[in-house]
Write a structure and sequence with these properties.
alpha+beta, 6 helices
């Protein structure tokens, strides 16, 4: 099995073109028709790096006492709760943002809970958050824990033993966002050929007056692709989705990528 302290996985999910359905699909029995967009994908990479010092301990053990059901006069029973806390950084270079979190897993004889908490290390003040990403991570990790609790805790323990930080990188192909401003700034004609020749994963432009990011979506399903690729990457990193055997044949690698895209759809 691949060590998790040097494991790196990337999962991609395609954008989509809505043919029919719209918001009607939110109510049964309505259906929608969607086509996957080749060459327009969201990519999530997850790895870890060891040895990063933090301002808080990664592991805490606590003890909780509860009364026996027979009555108040009976001796209390102590239930020890172990807490594993792993730092996670979610980096979105195109949105010029890094979100810093703690992934906290508490477990005892009767219950296990997972939560995601904001984290402030030295030099990382004014930490921002993103509820959309946080809810995706917590739902995915809760499923992973329930799928195979022992393996999930083993992976977290291995990360903890090397004081590792989980690193998540979010990248979207250019077609998800309008590139008109970039092309005009570089004197490029608005042609398909020029669009296809642009550098990959261009960052969103910044408004010169307000300093705010200018995000003009093209309606290719970037939010859905983000959620799908992020969930898929977490499932693959924690071995819920098996890692495909590597191959020296580039064509075989492309086939493997297509199989993962199909699986995620």
């Amino acid at each position: 099995m691949t060590k998790h302290d040097d494991k790196c996985v990337t999962v991609s999910a395609p954008g989509k073109v809505l043919i029919a359905g719209g918001y009607l699909v939110l109510e049964k029995p309505n259906i929608g028709v969607v086509l996957a967009a080749k060459g327009c994908s969201f990519h999530v990479t997850i790895t870890s790096f060891p040895g990063k010092s933090t301002t808080e301990e990664q592991h805490v053990s606590t003890s909780t006492s509860v009364n026996d059901a027979a009555g108040d006069n009976t001796p209390t029973q102590s239930i020890e709760t172990a807490t594993i806390r792993i730092p996670m950084d979610v980096h979105s270079p195109q949105f010029r943002t890094i979100f810093h979190y703690w992934i906290e897993c508490q477990s005892n004889e009767t219950n296990e809970t997972i939560q995601i908490l904001p984290r402030e290390d030295e030099g990382q003040k004014n930490n921002t958050s993103n509820t959309f990403i946080e809810q995706t991570i917590i739902i995915a990790l809760t499923f992973i824990q329930r799928h195979n609790a022992a393996h999930f805790l083993n992976v977290l323990s291995a990360l903890q033993s090397t004081r590792s930080t989980l690193a998540v990188k979010l990248r979207a192909d250019n077609d998800f966002y309008s590139q008109v401003q970039y092309m005009e700034a570089h004197g490029l004609d608005l042609t398909p050929g020029n669009i296809s020749s642009l550098p990959n994963f261009l960052p969103c432009p910044v408004d010169a007056q307000t300093g705010a990011l200018v995000v003009n979506k093209t309606g290719m399903g970037s939010s859905a692709a983000l959620v799908t690729s992020l969930v898929g990457a977490l499932l693959r990193y924690f071995d819920v989705i098996p890692t495909l055997p590597s191959s020296d044949d580039d064509d075989d690698d492309d086939d493997d990528d297509d199989r993962y895209r199909a699986l995620l759809l």
